[in-house]
Amino acid sequence: MHFSVEMETGTGKTYVYLKTIYELYKTYGFKKFIIVVPSIAIKEGTLKNLQITTEHFGKEYDIKIMKYFVYDSKKPSILRDFAVSNDLRIMIMNIDAFNKKEANKIYQNLDSMNGVRPIDLIK
């Protein structure tokens, strides 16, 4: 499934989609989420919102283990934890990482990943 949250600036989009993530986790057991953002500024704002609301949502939804992180093409090994963990995981990444460019490491077979492409772990 794909969801799109579209609201005016400053009306609580980030809170709405974070709450939606936790509801999907609680109701259906969904554990892997990717938040794709258009810019570095929005990525930083999303990360800050996660830092601020993790304890709040953790108490509200009785979540003991939840990790979030920003995708870094220089550290693709963190994707393995994202892929195999049985706990709630949230990855934040820029849309540019998905652009089909030869230089994007997300589509490359990497020695540090035993020849596995990062995009295949995300799938």
What report would you give on this structure?
The chain is α/β, with parallel strands linked by helices. It has a domain at 13-96. The protein is 40% helix and 15% strand. It has 4 helices and 3 strands. It has a 3-stranded parallel beta sheet, with helices on one face. Strand 2, helix 3 and strand 3 form a beta-alpha-beta unit. The longest helix is centred in the middle third of the chain and has 21 residues, at 40-60. The radius of gyration is 15 Å and the shape is globular.
Question: If helices are DSSP runs of H or I spanning 4 or more residues, what is the number of helices?
Answer: 4
In total, the number of strands is: 3
Low-confidence stretches: none
Distance between the termini: 13 Å
The helix-strand sequence is HEHEHEH
Percent of residues in β-strands: 5-15%
Q: Mean pLDDT, rounded to whole units?
A: 85
Largest sheet: 3 strands, parallel
What percent of residues adopt helix (DSSP H or I)? 25-40%
What is Rg?
15 Å
Structural class: alpha/beta
Helices and strands in order:
Elements: H1 13-28, E1 32-37, H2 40-60, E2 66-70, H3 78-84, E3 88-94, H4 118-122
Parallel strand pairs: 1-3, 2-3
Helix pairs in contact: 1-2
Keyword list:
single chain; 123 residues; alpha/beta; 3-stranded parallel beta sheet; 4 helices; 40% helix
Entry summary:
With 123 residues, the chain is α/β, with parallel strands linked by helices. It is built from four helices and three strands, in the order αβαβαβα.
